[in-house]
Amino acid sequence: MQLTGSNLACERGGRTVFSNQNFSLNSGELLQLTGPNGSGKSSLLRLLANLGEPSHGKISLEGGAPDLTPGQQAHYIAHSDASKSALTVTENLVFWRDFLGGGDLMRALQAVNLAPLADYPAALLSAGQRRRLALARLALVPRPIWLLDEPGVGLDDSAQKLLAALMNGHLREGGLIVAATHVPLGLDPDKNLHLGAAP
Predict the structure, then answer these.
(1) Which helix (H) or strand (E) holds 45?
(2) What is the mean pLDDT of the chain?
(3) Which is it for the CA torsion 105, 73, 24, 42, positive or negative?
(4) Are strands 56-62 and 2-12 parallel, antiparallel or unpaired?
């Protein structure tokens, strides 16, 4: 499988966020996106998730399901944790399982160490626990592409290690990961793309 961005440009509100961006990512590879705030890291992830169209250039996927877009074959974890406060941890995962088409609830809970909190309302979780609940979707339903926007935000050291283990496992199975981050991910990226001014 190969995910490619060719001569990509993005405009928002009449402003060019980035232009002339190229990358190619193969099965088992991690692409790390870096750059200052406002340089377009989140915008690029949203384009890959098919939540917008590039103003120029093309995104293509070879080797995936031919009848699905890259975004339909991806997990997109954004800044917002996308959990419902009135539901328990398990009920949130049941919602995502049903919405995404099946999955292993216990595997997801154990992958992010939330099994002891399975019956807790999401409203009672700490920020780090809510982030782990969002990341549990990665283990809940297999998808070949992971698009992660600052996945380590709010995580303590032990949770960072859980995230790194999840990512390593996905890469070993031939998955692809594009991750925007300001902090180390706990594993070495195969490729880097810096947006904005040169570091």
Answers:
(1) helix 41-48
(2) 91
(3) negative
(4) antiparallel
Question: pLDDT tens, 53-94?
Answer: 899 999 999 988 888 888 889 999 998 778 899 999 999 999
Rounded-to-integer distance, Cα 138 and Cα 27, Å: 17
Sheet of 74-77: strand order equals 74-77, 145-149, 176-180, 30-34, 191-194
- Report the Cα 190 to chain-centroid distance in Å: 16
Check whether 175 has a pLDDT greater than 90. yes
The structural domains of the chain, with segments of one domain joined by +, span: 2-83+143-194
Class of domain 2-83+143-194: alpha beta
Name the burial class of residue 72, with classes exposed (0-12), middle (13-18) and buried (19+) by CB atoms within 10 angstroms of its CB: middle
In whole angstroms, give the CA distance from residue 104 to residue 140: 5
Identity at 125, one-letter amino acid code: L
Q: Is the pTM of this model over 0.85?
A: yes
